[in-house]
Amino acid sequence: MSWMIPKSTCAESSRPMSTKAWLLHGVAVAAALVGAHAYFYYRRSATVFRSRVVGIIPARFASSRFQGKPLVEILGKPMIQRTWERAKLATTLDRVVVATDDEKIAECCRGFGADVIMTAESCRNGAERCSEALQKLDKKYDIVVNIQGDEPLIDPEIIDGIVKALQTTPDAVFSTAVTSLKPEDAFDPNRVKCVVDNRGYAIYFSRGLIPFNKSGKINTEFPYNLHLGIQSYDSEFLKIYPNLSPTPLQLEEDLEQLKVLENGYKMKVIKVDHDAHGVDTPEDVAKIEKFMLERNLS
């Protein structure tokens, strides 16, 4: 964090703030920030078990890379329906809803039996859409799982895994999953990479290859992590998330997870064995249909 020395506003103190006074001011501000985090963590650690869990699938029609993506058919079913059906198999979810700003998506989802929450077009990302939907639900929940609608083959056990990770890590406000990165995806900016510490907390996310070695090439012996996109939040944290100002790293990488880390919150990461099949572009539809047909997945 960079510190800016405030100008004096009273005549008696028109001289610049002394070094000692400025240091004391900086310590006070830092203490207030630390205190806010400590209070939040204390509140959550006092709760033994975050038991009530809702899964939310954010879906918007407008997309710079793939207009109308949630409604694209994957072997005869809308992709949003396939995602919803997979999410319903998770044992930790008390409820699954779709959060959208588009009436065409809402109508489609109601047609196959999904609960729908209408949200504003102004939501900048999935987390903000989940936050708005959470506050419109008629029941209270302790954990919200943000289920990406563009991975229609998501494993329900991964949903359960990140929920349990957050339930058993009281100092974390966020949990997510990674899997092994395929060499051919190393420099694909649509495949987000993640590095974690030795306690399983996220250090950084990037669209570039991380870590990046001096040779500039992928090290076939290194266990790179691919971020799967699915994530769960402490519901109290999710309520304040939209009010956190955008951060430099978040804006540069266009990754919402970085705003969480840059604000000093902890994120628990689990590693799973999963063959990720996200649909980022129209070309990905044929790839995932081919994969499903080869494995007799209807």
Description of the molecule:
It is an enzyme of class 2 (transferase). Keywords: Nucleotidyltransferase, Transferase. One of its GO terms (cellular component) is cytosol. Pfam families: CTP_transf_3. By secondary structure, the protein is α/β, with parallel strands linked by helices. Helix content is 33%, strand content 20%. It has nine helices and eleven strands. The chain has helices at 19-45, 79-87, 103-111, 126-136, 156-167, 235-240, 248-253, 257-262, 283-294; strands at residues 53-59, 73-74, 77-78, 95-100, 115-118, 143-146, 172-180, 193-196, 202-206, 225-234, 266-271. The strands form two sheets. Strands 1, 4, 5, 6, 7, 8, 9, 10 and 11 form a nine-stranded mixed sheet that branches. A two-stranded antiparallel ribbon has the order 2-3. The protein is globular. 35% of the residues are buried.
Topology of this structure?
Layout: H1 19-45, E1 53-59, E2 73-74, E3 77-78, H2 79-87, E4 95-100, H3 103-111, E5 115-118, H4 126-136, E6 143-146, H5 156-167, E7 172-180, E8 193-196, E9 202-206, E10 225-234, H6 235-240, H7 248-253, H8 257-262, E11 266-271, H9 283-294
Parallel strand pairs: 1-4, 1-6, 4-5, 7-11
Antiparallel strand pairs: 2-3, 6-10, 7-10, 8-9, 8-10
Pathway: Nucleotide-sugar biosynthesis; CMP-3-deoxy-D-manno-octulosonate biosynthesis; CMP-3-deoxy-D-manno-octulosonate from 3-deoxy-D-manno-octulosonate and CTP: step 1/1
Keywords: Nucleotidyltransferase, Transferase
Catalytic activity: 3-deoxy-alpha-D-manno-oct-2-ulosonate + CTP = CMP-3-deoxy-beta-D-manno-octulosonate + diphosphate
